[in-house]
Write a structure and sequence with these properties.
This protein is 56% helix and 11% strand. The chain contains 16 helices and eight strands. It is globular and about 70 Å long. It comes from Bacillus methanolicus PB1.
């Protein structure tokens, strides 16, 4: 009996073990079958991802790089045009350029070209085409008897109006000095050097209210003539400057429209009228400053309108360039008080030439020749600077992104080579232009302008 019970117990143990093994085999077999069933799905999924990546690559059409200098000059200034990448501070670069396309995983050539184009947009410098140089020379040639445009001919009267930004941002400091104080001192130096007989006017805008939303309506309707166009009186002009406090918004369009009223009695037939707009930013009042500038330019006042961007950001710079372009005027960015004074000195030089004209000293006027150190080679130096520094800044940004794992070494090499070729092209164009300009060295301003205009028109046809 005991033997029978032992045998039965042993049988039950064996049966349990066999059952467990059978269950495990079924589970393993099921997993194998499931894996086999999943394999086609995985292959399909990988194929779909591959097709998707190929489709995305095909959908990318990088914008072409400029092929002429005129195309280059037409590009808007980049939002990070003043950004200074530093290898020791990579986090700042990564934050500033975090919106660039992702090229961290085996990018195609198209994707790299697209990346470079987007990066270039963000740091785009303010290149100036031949038209900008022509405008500089035209302004310097005012009063030359060979210049046919009546706007640039001296008349019996010379009137200069400065339209000054008094918005809240002018209370910021630059070079250890409040921007408004720097502007006031520069303007005062300028008017103190004006020759007797020249008239000057001063208009401000954005000087009421504050830059708070609640004061926008008040501030955007504020523009005031602080010193009506008249002969310079030191005491009265100083008193007018002292009243100006930077507080509000930036109604550039309003100021330009009001300026037309200031000059209404000075028609262009008997007056040489010059307007200088000084601003440190974009119009914030939805007042269409470009159209306002066009209306002033095309009025019977026939003014020359030049624009100074004082420590201005990229957005403001692009709008101020548009204002200058709409009126065939000069745009100049100045970064501090010394540069602002230098720009205003150009009007002083012009006013002195006007006095020579009034005194019939025509021989002195006609002897004006183009000087290497003046506008032409100042223009060339500026273009060379832009090309060299833009190239270097892009190289640094690419290096920082590669070191931070945003691209591999092959991508960096490709982008560096593309960057080198592009900026070598810019410098070669500047070099060609420099050689052409050497031939104009002994020509009068009028002759130089005519030569450049013929060349420029031929290149743009």
């Amino acid at each position: 009996m005991k033997t029978l019970l032992k045998s039965l117990f042993l049988f039950l143990i064996i049966l349990t073990v066999l059952s467990a093994c059978n269950k495990e085999e079924k589970e393993v077999d099921g997993q194998v079958k499931q894996q086999a069933a999943d394999q086609p799905t995985k292959q399909v999924s990988e194929k779909e991802d591959e097709n998707k990546n190929r489709h995305e690559d095909e959908s990318i059409e990088p914008e072409p790089l400029p092929s002429t200098y005129e195309e280059l000059a037409a590009l808007p200034v980049g939002e990070h045009v003043n950004f200074n990448p530093k290898l020791g501070e990579p986090e700042k670069t990564l934050e500033a350029f975090k919106g660039l396309p992702d090229i961290s995983s085996n990018p195609s050539k198209k994707e790299l070209d697209h990346f470079y184009r987007e990066l270039l947009k963000m740091v785009q410098k303010d290149f100036k085409g031949p038209e900008a140089l022509i405008r500089q020379l035209r302004f310097q040639s005012i009063g030359n008897p060979d210049v046919e445009d009546s706007r640039y001919q001296f008349k019996e009267n010379l009137n200069v109006e400065i339209i000054l930004d008094a918005s809240g941002s002018m209370a910021q400091s630059i070079g250890g000095k409040v921007k408004m104080d720097a502007a006031k001192d520069s303007i005062l130096d300028f008017v103190n050097q004006l020759p007797e007989g020249a008239k000057v006017g001063l208009r401000v805008y954005g000087h009421k209210g504050s830059n708070a939303d609640s004061d926008k309506k008040l501030s955007c309707s504020s523009s005031e003539i602080m010193y009506p166009i008249s002969p310079y009186n030191e005491g009265k002009f100083q008193s007018a400057l002292n009243k100006i406090k930077p507080t509000g918004w930036t109604p550039i369009g309003l100021a330009l429209r009001e300026s037309k009223k200031d000059l209404d009695q000075f028609e262009g037939t008997n007056n040489t009228n010059i307007v200088y707009l000084v601003s440190d930013g974009v119009s914030t009042c939805d007042d269409n400053p470009v159209q306002a500038a066009k209306d002033l330019y095309n009025s019977n006042i026939s003014p020359i309108i030049n624009v100074i961007g004082f420590d201005v950001d990229a957005e403001g710079q692009n709008q101020l360039i548009q204002i200058a372009d709409a009126t065939e005027g000069i745009y100049q960015k100045v970064n501090d008080e010394s540069e602002l004074k230098k720009e205003l000195e150009k009007i002083t030089d012009l006013a002195e030439t006007w006095i020579d004209w009034k005194e019939k000293n025509m021989q002195k006027i006609e002897r004006k020749k183009i000087q290497n150190e003046l506008d032409i080679f100042g223009y060339i130096t500026g273009e060379e600077y832009n090309a060299s520094f833009e190239r270097t800044e892009i190289e640094l940004i690419i290096s920082i992104l590669e070191q931070s794992g945003k691209m591999d070494d092959d991508s960096q090499q490709y982008l560096d080579q593309k960057n080198k070729e592009y900026h070598d092209w810019i410098l070669s164009e500047v070099g060609k232009f420099k050689e052409e300009l050497k031939k104009l060295n002994e020509k009068s301003y009028a002759e130089a302008i005519k030569t450049l205009e013929e060349k420029y028109q031929q290149n743009t046809q």
